[in-house]
Design brief:
single chain; 353 residues; six-stranded parallel beta sheet
Amino acid sequence: MTELHLWLRHEVRTTERRTPVVPSDARRLVESGVTLTVEESPQRIFPMDEYEAVGARVAAAGSWVSAPADAVILGLKELPGEPAELPHRHIFFGHAYKQQPGATDLLRRFAAGSGALLDLEYLVDDHGRRLAAFGYWAGYLGAALAVLQHRGRLVAPLTPTSKEELDEILRPAPGDEEFTALVIGALGRSGRGARVALQAAGLDPTCWDLPETRALDRRALLAHDVMVNCVLATTPVPPFLREADLDDPARRLRTLCDVTCDVGSPLNVLPVYDRTTEWTDPVRRLHKEPPLDLIAIDNLPSLLPRESSIDFSGQLLPLLLEFGTDGPWGRCLERFRDTARELGIVEGESRDV
């Protein structure tokens, strides 16, 4: 690994309590020769003194904008709208490669500053498999919220909790009516998490994956009470739900959780809604009669910030220790450059990893 200065930034989203690097893994980075700067953050699940104790430098929240040019800025969710030029290399979930809203503007900011986006979603092995993901926890929480909503026990606003506390309220109570649940994308990380949550809730879900979605039985889909979508399409596929399905008087489906939240993308498999839901208002009524409630929160794992951060940090650590121009990081950089070229964004030349 070349000499690395890693700068862990504060997350601007107030509901984002996760971190991509937890203090125990920060220790490993520092001991391996990485210079680690950690910004102060009022909502991060791990306090600042735990990072200081393992040798990290402390910086003010948002000071990454004036970080040394060689620093690699590490985060999770979206950047603030300024500055207009981004000269650094940034590691985070950019959501910028599938024509999502705001994607072109973000890529133009990188081009203007000759920086680079190393998108965590595209940190993959030689076979295209993701190497660091929050998917299990997203699926777990999405299914858990769907169950609580369907049972009339979901309380807003949502607040972070622990897995032990969540499992306790997931357990079926006397008098709870039985219902059917469907997980689409059941064999992936998110699907596995969704299945575990549904089983903790006393349910035996129907599990669909590629064979079932290739030959979609729409009538069978609509015959379930609850559906949890864990499919993030990378190529065009027929939508799982259409506007016409919402009007179907025979539809039994009442609660829909879209874990993937691919809103605005032409690859969205659930083009029946146009905006996500929030912690303050986690459920939106999509259709009045027959009713259909939607949960579509794009940072679900932050509701279990400690557990999900520890898991993700453990996956990311070996990749940070091998940070360089080859392998997964090189593929990340090439994906960024290829997308920028496809969009005609060539204002500056991004640096190598």
